[in-house]
């Protein structure tokens, strides 16, 4: 400290004479030594030793803030999706491929073709051909190889006067009237259908138009059945002794023939040489047979075309037939 003061006095004395007289250097030493470390501020009432110890003790750092760690939520398991199945539409009953035998006044008649067998009421209580039985018999007499139609197909063709299903022709209702007479003459005997609709028949055959059936009666002789159907008016009757069956068709006049050809042979029909109808009826009385019509001139004598007449009659009958209702359900 004395060295500092000597240096200051020397500087003051060494100043040049031109120095201003009013410049005065004053140095005052501090009254007390300034502490190098600030004294701690002690609270009122606390001793200096306690305060010094408190100051010497490093402050305890505050604890770190507690961070709440929330665990992640567990993975959400998707709930199983419940498939809501809409309720099924109301089921519409479908008719059978072959309609069942309707309940009517006449007794049912059994028809057989191969493994198929049906019992049908041919005429209703008013004596008219039954529409449902006509459909069933048409299906039974379908062409060889034609599949059995499904119910929807029968319903779709219910009002068609020509077809009961694709490739299955509707039979003429006059065949049901003739079959009813045969069934009444041979009760309890099944009628076997040999053939009906035949698309491969010769041109002009009534098998092409649903007008003819080839048949036999189970348990009855061929001659007895032929004797009965030979009395039918407006009917074509053909006897096939080699095949053991009869041909029956609907036409405008009675026509008879005998075909001696065997299976696979070309036809050899010859007109039937039979006694007059009246003599035949007297010799073989049949109470159940219909009464013969009065004699009338032949078509050849009148100059009529039988084929043209039957075609026109068929079209007229088809036009007059009522609309067929869908087959009944089982």
From TrEMBL:
The record's annotation in Gene3D superfamilies points to: 3.30.1380.10
Q: Where is the composition biased (Pro residues)?
A: 58-77, 85-102, 287-296
Q: Does the keyword ATP-binding apply?
A: no
- Region Disordered: list its residue ranges: 53-102, 258-305
- For the keyword Repressor, the answer is no
Looking up InterPro entries in the UniProt record yields: MepK, Zn_M74/Hedgehog-like
Signal sequence extent? 1-21
The source's domain of life comes to Bacteria
* Keywords, comma-separated and alphabetical: Signal
The protein in question is named Outer membrane protein, OmpA/MotB family
